[in-house]
Amino acid sequence: MAADVIDYEILGEDLQAVVVTLDPGEAVVAEAGAMMYLQDGVEMSTALSMKKDAPGLLGKLFEAGKRVLTGDSFFITYFTNQGRVRADAAFAAPYPGRIVPVELSMHGGEITCQKDSFLCAARGVNVDIAFTKKIGVGLFGGEGFILQKLTAPEGRGLAFLHAGGLVVERVLVAGETLRVDTGCIVAFERGVSYDIQMVPGVKNMLFGGEGLFYAVLRGPGTVWLQTLPLSRMADRIIAASKHKREEGSVLGGLGGLLDGDNTF
């Protein structure tokens, strides 16, 4: 099935949303919980499969089970314009960052992305899982053995990814490599190989503060990177919260009073 040709507008700078304008009969598929608003005529529906030719109930259940492995919901959510005029469906990013529109026809009809990067796509774009083939990538790659694969069956289809912080797009020539923090990868084209290498040197591993492993991306192809992975942001928030509690414990109630946290 060819993907619907949809129009869109991205709103905002750091806390972005994408407004998809649907002609009558057009639809968009979205990550669970991403919907912000729907205009009159756009109706929500759920399905087990994104493929019309899915082989029976067992085939649809198997496809739904694979989605659960990537952290997605069991059902696929569609938003279809069932009215007679064009109408909007808006989807919001889950945390500060950028929404990245990707026309799959410009990237060989397929990209591989982190399992939490997918936001929404035109109906007809398939979201599947991609098992990493190397055990080192699975054990130490930061994303386990499973990534997401977005494909357009007829080569064309518009998808929207979400990345934390700013987005850096790099085009690698054949044989060119890029060493990347594993959490900073958003997506890469089919021609890019993905591997894991250990940080060289015992001192670097113990005191470098960059972990034990990094990802190695080898061209040719385009890669998308993010400056602020959700895991890194969460670690900083947890560390700041712990530091706050430790500061208060030194002075007890007086410390809280000086910080303005205590009220009477």
In short:
21% of the residues lie in helices and 40% in strands. By secondary structure, it is α+β, with helices and mostly antiparallel strands.
What this model shows, in words?
The protein has helices spanning 56-69, 135-140, 202-207, 230-251, 253-259, and strands at 7-11, 17-22, 27-30, 35-38, 42-47, 76-81, 87-92, 97-103, 110-113, 118-122, 126-131, 146-151, 158-164, 167-172, 177-180, 185-189, 193-198, 213-218, 221-226. It is 21% helix and 40% strand. Helix 4 (230-251) packs across helix 5. The strands form 4 sheets. Strands 5-6-3-10-13-8 form a 6-stranded antiparallel beta sheet, with no helix packed on it. It has a domain at 7-163: 4-Layer Sandwich (Double-stranded beta-helix), CATH 3.60.160.10. The chain contains 5 helices and 19 strands. A hairpin with a 5-residue loop joins strand 1 and strand 2. The chain is of the alpha+beta class and 264 residues long.
Strand content: 35-45%
As residue ranges, the low-confidence spans are 135-145, 202-209
Cα-atom radius of gyration: 21 Å
CATH architectural category of one domain = 4-Layer Sandwich
CATH superfamily of one domain: Mitochondrial biogenesis AIM24
- Major sheet summary line: 6 strands, antiparallel
Order of helices and strands: EEEEEHEEEEEEHEEEEEEHEEHH
Outline, from the CA principal axes? globular
Q: What is the CATH class name of one domain?
A: Alpha Beta
Average residue pLDDT? 79
Strand order, sheet with most strands: 5-6-3-10-13-8
The N- to C-terminal Cα distance equals 65 Å
The DSSP helix count reads 5
